[in-house]
Amino acid sequence: MKTCTDILLIVLLVSACASAPEKGIPYNDFPVTEQLSGQTVPLDTAIFHFPYRIRVQGDTVAILDLHASEHFIQLFHYPDFSYIASLGRRGDSPEDMLSAENLRWDGNSLWMLDANKSQLTKYGLSLSGDSLLREEVVSLDKEILRALDFVVYDDSTFIVPDYSGESRFCWVDRKGKLLRKMGEIPSANEEALMQARPALAQAWRSFIDYNPRNGVLAAVTQLGEVLEIYNLKDSTHVVRIGPHGEPKFKVAEGYGIPTGIMGFCDVQVTDSAIYAVFQGRTFKDIAEAAQKGDMTDGGRYVYVFSLEGEPLRKYGLDHVVYSVFIDKLDKIIIAMDVNMDSPILLFSS
């Protein structure tokens, strides 16, 4: 009888550990759901391989082509999308780029991240004002593990995700020197926190954005369904966890192997809200689709949260998109569909 009681206690303890509460405020749905139809923008002058990010500053659009054969960045006029120039040449020379992971406008200057070179490159307006010229290169501190994203905090500081597992973000100065680290991974997986932090950090890879006007830094997980909001003005931190929970993975030879879902793939912090593209597909479904020749990539949903993390609205899209830019003035969502030859879409919200 005692043996049965001991077994029951062990089962209860294991169940309790398996269902440990996640470190965040859960959300289940959005109060408003709206379906949107996209309008394709015709382009005559650019061929994209994987249009990964779109950034708009004033009357200029910059589009990052993740797998470009010649130039990683294509510039267009906005809103007519007439071609301006190409930059960020792919190659092995000192001024070329080996890879391009993200780009950020900083006023009229454009910063680009090359993870393979561990460099940030700044492009500024030419004297004629019709193109961007390479002005500055920042080599990142060797203590920073392969940076895959960044934001410009101010004119002297960048914020880069930390993939060592020791913290959430690295603060870096304009010379590339690591200044300090901030935050921790808000995971309920205590075993991984104690024994597999690098693998945990890989699984918690997040896409980030920062708005200097309201001081909000947002991070959304590539796996699972977690939104983190850091208000850098009042030092508050909010974690919101959706129905799919935190990133799920297993550890193999020190690496985090995903086992759950593909979650978010882009985020933008506007002056009044946070917009995030969400996929929600299981790796099993993705593998089965690939076996049938369906290589569709991206998400059909744009989630809208308040700056405090409250769910506001969910947009369902008639296209699968990877990146968005929110034009609040004209109430337009500009999106990139990596699966189309003409990838730029306009959605009226």
TrEMBL record:
Statement: the UniProt record of this protein carries the keyword Magnesium: no
Protein name as it appears in the record: Lipoprotein
Lineage: Bacteria, Pseudomonadati, Bacteroidota, Bacteroidia, Bacteroidales
InterPro entries registered for this protein in UniProt: Quino_amine_DH_bsu
UniProt superkingdom: Bacteria
The keyword Signal appears for this protein: yes
Keywords: Signal
Record organism: Bacteroides cellulosilyticus CL02T12C19
Signal peptide residues on this chain, from the entry's feature table: 1-20
Entry-linked PROSITE patterns: PROKAR_LIPOPROTEIN
